[in-house]
Amino acid sequence: MDFLEILDPNGRRRHVRLERPRMLIGREPNCDVCLPHPNVSRRHAQLQQTEQGWLLQDLNSLNHVYVEEQIVEQIVLEPGKLVRIGDFRLCLRTAPTPIEPDEIVRTDDDSSPSWPGLEPGWLEQLQGFQRSLLKIDQSRPLLERLAEEFKRVARPQLVAVCLADRDPNCWEVVLGSTDCQESRLRVARQRIKDDTDVQSWSDVSPSDRDTPYPGSAMSLIFPMKGRSGIIGHVYVDRPKRSPMPLSLQRYLSLYAHHAGIVWENLQITELRLAHKAYEAELRQARQIQVELFPAKFEVDLRINAFGVNLPSVKVSGDYYDLVKVSEDVVGFVIADAMGHGMPAALLMAAVRATVRMGLALRLSWQALFAG
């Protein structure tokens, strides 16, 4: 019987029996040959048994099928000749190559393999996490959701999340507890820098020798990367698997990166909402300011007067007024407060109130402007 030998991105090898005349290859778990990786399409290619042999056909996949780094649409497989799909290498075998026991990728379901160190269904869980973030409209619940997912996947003693633009000694979210927690968080803060890669270190001490975790006690820092750079970090202390496999580190980095993108989107949305609220307040302030100007200019039939205010911004410090002081006296007031915006507009309102009140009390102009 023929076999399809599959070499995954981590160098692990497994075999799939070609028991049916047509077999589907793709990322979906229900494919006959499941290659769980984002670079593999849901239904990437198919194998079909023909008179010439096993025919491999590309199903209009996004990342194509490669033979000797050349794109092919279909090819009859030759035993031992490598074909690349995503980061996987495939070749036809008439008999399975012996595999050492420690080289076998162990999964609960042979039809749905996973990266080494990851449980089956990891891709679906990642997609579910991405969908759950889209339902969150505030920053803190997003960070809490990220920390919960890190705790579920890595099963560490402690998970903490911090933001780059906040207090250096502040952790936004802390889940779990461990010995010397404060000192560990302080050391993690000292190690945080603008690295785009995962940092890890071991801190074995005599008190750590009785830890139930295998190997040395490991701590890791995962950067949260947004479009503009590093926006935060996730600290993982003593995960269950220590040292943590590189595949699991890359997997958790996907969580941190996606959360960073969504967090940035939330910040942009909050800025837009705040800007809209500010614009609404300015429109209200402008309406109030317009009402402070004279509603009519017919204070004396002997005078033909007119005035208009055209500010360069929403509100300004421009001020004019027309007040009948006595039977034969009409007061004209024209002023301009220094500056622009709300401070100048508030000063203008104060000057108007002072002038009107002073004239109502029959103060002289000298006394009025002397304060």
Helix content: 25-40%
The CATH topology of the largest domain comes to Beta-Lactamase
Order of helices and strands: EEEEEEEEEEEHHEEHEEEHEEHH
Classified in CATH, the superfamily of the largest domain is GAF domain
Tally the beta strands. 18
Q: What fraction strand?
A: 15-25%
Distance between the termini: 105 Å
Given the structure, what is the number of helices?
6
Mean pLDDT, nearest integer? 81
The class by helix and strand makeup works out as alpha+beta
Domain unit count? 3
Rg from Cα: 35 Å
CATH class annotation of the largest domain: Alpha Beta
CATH architecture of the largest domain: 2-Layer Sandwich
* Order of neighbouring strands in the sheet with most strands: 4-3-5-6-9
Q: How would you sum up the global shape?
A: elongated
Largest sheet: 5 strands, mixed
Low-pLDDT segments, ≥5 res: 99-116, 204-216
Question: Can you describe what's shown?
Answer:
The protein is of the alpha+beta class and 371 residues long. The protein has three domains: 2-94, Tumour Suppressor Smad4, CATH 2.60.200; 122-269, Beta-Lactamase (2-Layer Sandwich); 293-369, no CATH class. It contains six helices and 18 strands. The protein has helices at 122-134, 139-154, 181-191, 246-292, 341-360, 365-369; strands at residues 3-7, 13-17, 22-26, 33-34, 45-49, 54-58, 65-67, 70-72, 74-76, 83-85, 88-93, 158-163, 173-176, 199-202, 218-226, 229-237, 318-324, 330-336. The strands form five sheets. It has a five-stranded mixed beta sheet, with no helix packed on it. Strands 13-12-16-15-14 form a five-stranded antiparallel beta sheet, sandwiched between helices. A four-stranded antiparallel beta sheet has the order 2-1-11-10, with no helix packed on it. The chain is elongated, with a radius of gyration of 35 Å. The relative contact order is 0.08. Residues 99-116 and 204-216 have low confidence and may be disordered.
